[in-house]
Amino acid sequence: MEKLVTFEHVTKSYSGNTIIDDVSHDFFEGEAITFAGHNGCGKSTMLKILAGFTGINHGNLTYHKKVRFSYVPEKFPGLDVKMIDYLKSIADMEGVSHSNVNKLIEEFFLEDMTETKMKNMSKGSLQKVGVIQALLVPHDIVLLDEPLSGQDTDSQRVFIDKMIELKKQGITVFMSCHEKKLMDELSDKIYTINKGKLEALKLEDVADSTFKIYVNKDSKINRWPEMTEHGNKYVLTVQRDEVKATVMKLYSEEWELVGIEEYI
Q: Is the pTM above the cut of 0.70?
């Protein structure tokens, strides 16, 4: 594989706080790279540096070929415009048929929201719009910041399959995420950022992952105080050693269990 981008002693600080500290590394064309780790460790900063959205304080960042980016931020903007109008305007700018827009809207289960203004959409639905925008014209590099945040299980499956297709086309994918499933199925290499340093991460060595347990909402059953809303579902976040007992209790109360996801 050919080198795509090289970091040479790259350092990035905000208000005197060093987020990326003297990192030197080569990334290669056609790979899917994941940046994992706790919130605030520097995952999003790495994506912004790669995209050129933020400058560096020291070092050099070199692209070995001319590239174009597709970027999906963690919080896609809730604009005062209908979702269908926004996506069709992107398609027009890129010379893409509106039929591609409609197809992706259906694949991500958003056909009932075409006339909804983006400012009135949930975080998960907005994230889907961001992903659709990136997939309309996938450029040389796709950068994804928490792409599965707020998305339902079916949409997550569609997203993973779409990213696998992009990899087969030789497109390079950089993403920040917590979901172990996404890392397992898509990533060629996984890194964490520890005190500003880029470190290779092996999933089998991670011992402190948490789990999210999803159940369908049911008005006949009392909602637990620790349950949070997730579309038409509730979600519980538990530690590894709490999963079995939590699932047994949910079944005893006749909740309908619809998914369990491991997060890092």
A: yes
